[in-house]
Amino acid sequence: MQQLLSFPGGFMERIFELIDKLEEETCLTREEWVTLLEGRSQEAAEYLFQKARKWQKKYFGNKIYTRGLIEFTNYCKNDCYYCGIRKSNQKAQRYRLSQEEIMECCHVGYELGFRTFVLQGGEDGYFSQKVLEDLVAGIKRQYPDCALTLSIGERSYESYLGFFQAGADRYLLRHETADENHYGTLHPPRLSLENRKRCLFDLKKIGYQTGTGFMVGSPGQTAEQLAVDMMFIRKLEPHMVGIGPFVPHHDTPFAGEPGGTVELTLFLLGLLRIMMPELLLPATTALGTIDPQGREKGILAGANVVMPNLSPTFVRKKYELYDNKICTGDEAAECWDCLSQKMKQIGYELAVGRGDYKEENVCTM
Ligand code: SAM
Ligand code: FES
């Protein structure tokens, strides 16, 4: 703080300068990130969000891309300390959707206007390479005009390549935290940041539209670690970044930890938008869970994607990553209508289309 107060132009001016610098040069030093994050204020956030919306409008107009999320299995061999479907949670009611049930989700989603399906699940050995490749190929055969995203955790290069050759277009794998020590406090020893990063670089190399991200306010997170996260994202140059608040789950080791805040999540969304203006940036369900207007606020801070749930209602409550997750009782159509209304109220519109990352979105401003 002492250091911040000693800036010649004053503390507030320094924060505004750093926002301008990030927008112009698209990167900051670690010290600058820390100063900006620790020194943020409501005024700075408003200044940032105006800039973020300018870029969002330039690349996406008032269109919000939609992705239909299919949570197809909650079995997981991993034991991430924050996650409600971790292996050690004996109370989780486990389920797997059949191929027919997954195809039915796609059918319902397609009729509603979804042109991207996201298959997300725990790391479930039941879904072998062959089963998953057949599933991917089957969905792409039936819906050739749709994009297919996978979010099924860490695999080998060959495995990712196999899914890509079967037709998968995109892959979501949050790095969770780019700080080695912090990674070790969120995950059991058999998981490593090194392998998580290896996966992300493999995915990019293969040609996937690749998404990374992290939880905001995960236990023990500091401004220094967030600075490292932002610098890692800049280096990876992903096509998508999913960030949402950490929300505690009552049957995990982090049950008693405080959750992440709306305020910091929105600020980081704004920073991501001005750092990489063409990013696909979801306003996440976790954000909507801790604030009934969370997703609208996320869009107004610079996000441009929403991911309504297409999973059948009979499994929704079982994919409980954190407490009080929203939309667990609604049919897919209700989710679409509800979000469509929410977006209209703030002057945006759900887009029908694949909503790909566009390389030609090269900055001309
Ligand atoms: N198994 C895949 C993976 O590891 O990427 C996908 C499923 S995993 C449940 C999807 C994401 O949920 C994680 O990347 C994590 O950031 C998020 N998540 C898990 N527990 C959470 C919690 N308690 N609060 C907020 N987000 C959480
Ligand atoms: Fe595997 Fe959360 S621990 S999905």
Derived structural class: alpha/beta
Number of helices: 15
Write down how many β-strands occur, each being a DSSP E stretch of 2 or more residues. Answer: 9
Largest sheet strand order: 2-3-4-5-6-7
Distance between the termini: 35 Å
Fraction of residues in helices? 40-55%
Q: What keyword list fits this structure?
A:
single chain, 365 residues, alpha/beta, six-stranded parallel sheet, 15 helices, 9 strands, globular, binds S-adenosylmethionine, binds FE2/S2 (inorganic) cluster
Question: What report would you give on this structure?
Answer:
The structure is a single chain. This protein is of the alpha/beta class and about 375 residues long. It contains 15 helices and 9 strands. It has helices spanning about 1-5, 10-25, 30-40, 40-60, 100-110, 130-140, 155-165, 180-185, 195-205, 225-235, 260-275, 285-290, 295-300, 315, 330-345, and strands at about 65, 70-75, 115-120, 145-150, 170, 210-215, 240-245, 305, 350. The strands form 2 sheets. It has a 6-stranded parallel sheet with strand order 2-3-4-5-6-7. It has a 3-stranded parallel sheet with strand order 8-1-9, with helices on one face. S-adenosylmethionine (SAM) binds near residues 82, 123, 215, 246 and 247. S-adenosylmethionine binds near residues 83, 122, 151 and 286.
